[in-house]
Amino acid sequence: MAHQSWYRKYRPQTFDDVVGQAHVERTLRNAVDEGAVAHAYLFTGPRGTGKTTTARLLAKALNCQTGPTGQPDDTCEDCRAIAEGTHPDVYELDAASRTGVDNVREEIIGRVNFAPARGRYKVYIIDEVHMLSASAFNALLKTLEEPPPHAVFVLCTTHPHKVPETIHSRCQRFEFRRLSVEEIAARLRRIADAEGVEVEDSALALIARHASGGMRDAITTLEQLASFAAGTITLADAESLLGEVGSDELFALVDLVVAGDLGGIFGFVAELVERGADLVDFSLALARHARDLFVSDLLEDPGPALDVRAEELRRLRRQAQAVGRARLARMLDLLDDLTGTMRSAADARLALEFALTRLARPETDLTLEALAQRVEALEDALRSGLAQGRRTRQEADAASAPDAEASDGGSRRRREAADAGSAKAERAAAGRKAASAPESVAEPEPASAVQHADESASPLDARSVKRLWPAVIAEMRKRKPSRSYHFDSTEPEVVDGVLVVEFPRDRSVSLDMARDPDTVALLRNALERVLGASPPIEYRLGRQGVSSSVAAGQEGPTPAAASADPSPGGAEEGAKPQAGSSGAAFEDVEARLIAELGAAVVEERVVGDGSEGAGA
To answer: What pLDDT sits at residue 110?
Structure first.
């Protein structure tokens, strides 16, 4: 007996055998059982999904000797004749070879009115119906619209958009979907067991993915592999025959990209070239893998969005977390461009290696996507470093707490008095400097503009701040675009741990608007997200301008700023040295008494000509 291909040998013979098209099977069964069979059907979908097979099953259901029935027995003479293609009332026409109007007139129009020779219905199955000419479609219209009651038409096509709308409107349309990897793999396992072929599950999964949803292609590949392999069909056999890269290799390559291992990446590509793999197909497979990573990271329950097994889904999620969402998005963009570039590239290997290098080393790429990936890496590093620093400081504070509690109250009061004396001395020195300072060349700023951070904030690196300043502004723009524009053209500097934001001389209005508490809070939030820290902030107008906002450890305020300070001992004390040198000398003595002896000011009075006195 001549050899019969497996896809013909294992063609479904009942509706129960059809895989993945339950919506079609149920409708046709109910229509046959209820006597509501339409006169014309249009079956559409990808190749190898069961269109012609389902058309034959419908012919069986209508002409079975126990029917019409939705469960043909597949044992009667009519069912067997239909399965073998010898039934006189079931016509299978290939529209690809019979495209003309004469073929339609001769084989359909001229014969359709004759009664069935053997069964109840005449069933016309027209494969690749979109290949008919326009005149052939026009000739078929009237017959298709009003056929005799014993005629049923089933039109099958993979290109429904090429079928005229006049045909569509006369048919009930059924969409055949692509089969999932699991559905194809399960059917392949049944066929392999029936044929006594040993095959690894991983090889079946690769065959199913390569078939792109078509059962016929998958069965044909399995039959070819059974002849190719000497014993058990392994994943390596399937990869060698199909020229595809397995999922394990795709995972391994992405791990190399994440690690930045250029040597491993170039070695991987060299192995692909050595074994003759199609690099364009490989780039498509890598793009599909990146898409699966992206979807698994975005969706908690991917559902039909990911056609993978549960074990592989868990593996995808683990790798997606290691890659990061910014790098995944950039990977998708780059691989999408790569697949188009490689088709016309003079050297596809060079194009692939260059793209993988850009993915592995974003610092060599000057695109916005690469910058976003680098910023994301810096954010993660800064957050982890800041958290570690805070834990270290908390441990140190906890260790020193018992000592602080053991110190007596008198020592604490002396330290507080000494701190107050030091602050008094600083204010006196600031007042003397304000009296002798020249007029400020920049618009002064109230001392309230200084926004001090938590004392536990980590020190800033000036170079990192300058490099990441555009990212800070971009973060502000994402949240409040109307407020972020005040910081355009600003320059950051770091002075003694204070972040100094310098505005251009002609942007004094922007500086004023930036003092708004909500704007300052927005800036702090952006700094926290990008830098991982919230340092003291100071605004300054113009490179040569004198700042009016003071941070710890900096020089005293300008006269205008001092006069704007409403706090006790602020403006008045800053103006005292202007009364004369004796007042300044008295302030020095007073400050020394407070700092060294722990004295405290009890009362201050203006006596005589306005000189000040104090009693301690």
So the answer is: 86
